[in-house]
Prior knowledge:
single chain, mainly beta, 5-stranded antiparallel beta sheet
Amino acid sequence: MTRLDPRPxxxxxxxxxxxxxxxxxxxxxxxxxxxxxxxxxxxxVHREVYVPSPAPKVSPDVGVSYVGGGLRRREIHSAxxxxxxxxxxxxxxxxDNGRTWxxxxxxxxxSDTLTQKDIGQxxxxxxxxxxxxxxxxxxxxxxxxxxxxPQAAIYATRRGDQKYFDHGQYRLSDDDGRTWTQARQLIxxxxxxxxxxxxxxxxxxxxNQVYGGYGVLTLADGRLAYPAVAPVAYExxxxxxxxxxxxxxxxxxxGFVPGVLCFFGTWxxxxxxxxxxxxxxxxxxxxxxxxxxxEPALAQFTDGTLxxxxxxxxxxxxPKTCPGRKWVSLSKDGGRxxxxxxxxxxxxxxxxxxxxxxxxxxxxxxTGKLYWVGNISKEPVKGNSPRYPLYIAEIDEQKAxxxxxxxxxxxxxxxxxxxxxxxxNFSLLENRETKDLEIYLTRIGxxxxxxxxxxxxxxxxx
Length: 462
């Protein structure tokens, strides 16, 4: 394998009326050593401060993952004082499942050049997965190129004036992340490769745009599967023009909506690499989700069915006539074709309100059951808010729905906390020794402009 700098790449931190939902409320916790809630429907929850905020107006972030098939862990710590821009990044490793840690070291991309003229570049790690088929650790990378100031580029793109461009890459390790191959691009359409001499090449910027998901799966047939967001050409119909006449084309350029496709990788032993294919993208009308479908999560049912769960948004729409939803699509043929996106519901058929935030799905090796972790709102949702409470629920694999009777609160906004607190940005993994689920979450806004990172330990009930 071609070897690179062994240090990790930068990590940064996507209409029917809803009935009222009665759910258990999480007990507000103080910031002491921790607290354990009474066992709820499917698990007990212990919360503790993991990384305190280093300063006013600064929120820390921790990305946690296993690297390799054993107990080697990697944590990447950063701090955020601007929207979606992480700074002060550092990394450390543990070879004994987090009992002891090697010292922190600065992050590096193998080059000190992160700008070219007025263009900025971020290389971010979005997902790490050990694939038993290839016996490799696969890291899914994300490249973002900003045209001008990053903060200004983010705001402009959200208003429909695209000023940043995203692409997907991956790299491999056969020694638990100590060394890596060169990064390779994820490709689903014709287009030139990245030109290190000209970051702003329009042909590269506009081709193969990808915003990757936060999880990778090895499927039952041995293939690797990775969901991602890509722009989908879209022409409004009369109903869209009526409903969305005051809605900007958000996150992508005018005439496109964010849609979701899935990459599938087949391991080629002779090449020492994956051969990739991509499904056709799934999308919805702008009047259904004004920001399209984003931040997908993927799961495989025991019968082989694939399920995509996706974030939508009712930003700029009337929340009474177009509530916030989570969206799902199913594939019965290994990902070649996908069903039209429908709203995720409870197993009794009732819908629920959800903000525009990501969710995660994970199958427990302890119980064998598939779980969903995400935000469900007790009140009408407007775009991204409110991002609480945070729940876990078992997925009914026959109905592709959440089992209402298993809905269990992980955390909620305390009465004394600001209304804009967010319980939505988190890492999720299963402890390979205890089989407990671990969540590392920054409670953004728990105090004005700041929040700590908390560790939640979920002990699943058999």
